[in-house]
Write a structure and sequence with these properties.
Distance between the termini: 81 Å
Largest sheet: 3 strands, antiparallel
Oligomer: single chain
Shape: rod-shaped
Length: 196
């Protein structure tokens, strides 16, 4: 297959015209990396390799752009990338980012658990559920949340005294408080223990 022309398209993207009026759009860095030139013969395999490298570059750039604004778990970032890129490219990009330490589910889970438990005052059950919704594996979620279990009674007592004490005058108010605390992820046993 012959490369008829390589013309600037937009930004650092170039339009490569091939036989049969076929056109591909490739980043300038990839063109230089593969030494592509006008009037050069290129095999279909080599062209597919170039296209793969360009797609990988775009997907990795997109992943890094997303990670600039917030941290993601492996699963969350995969879902974001999969909307625009093939599965093999997504897995290759994520594998690359894991290897260089940019994606770390353990670090992500620790930070999220701290925000949920200490910031939002969630109980263990709710924190684990939220971690799992973000793509954190069940065992890791359990392990990280278990580090906060020894302070759960104190945190719950502080939460009740600060936010719910005024509702504890009658049975109806106590039931409302219990229901609110269950929604936050505390067990009935711990709630009853603190309220007693």
């Amino acid at each position: 297959m012959l490369i008829y022309s390589i013309v600037k398209y937009k930004g650092n993207t170039y339009e490569i015209s091939l036989g049969n009026d076929e056109k591909v759009y490739i980043n300038g860095e990839i063109i230089l990396q593969y030494g592509l030139k006008t009037n050069m013969e290129i095999s279909v395999e080599r062209l597919n390799e170039v296209i793969h490298a360009d797609t990988f570059r775009k997907a990795k750039e997109r992943a890094l752009y997303l990670l600039d604004y917030k941290d993601y778990s492996y699963v969350q970032l995969y879902e974001k990338l999969e909307a625009n890129y093939p599965q093999d490219i997504c897995l290759e990009v994520l594998s690359n980012l894991v290897n260089i330490g940019i994606i770390d589910d353990n670090r992500y889970a620790k930070n999220l658990a701290e925000r949920l438990i200490l910031g939002k005052k969630y109980g263990s059950y709710r924190a684990i559920k939220e971690l799992k919704l973000k793509g954190i594996d069940d065992d890791l979620a359990q392990e990280i949340v278990s580090k906060y279990e020894d302070t759960e009674l104190e945190r719950l007592e502080s939460l009740i005294n600060g936010k719910y004490a005024r509702y504890l005058n009658d049975d109806k108010g106590i039931n409302k408080v219990k229901n609110a605390l269950v929604r936050l992820g505390y067990s009935y046993d711990i709630i009853n223990q603190v309220l007693d």
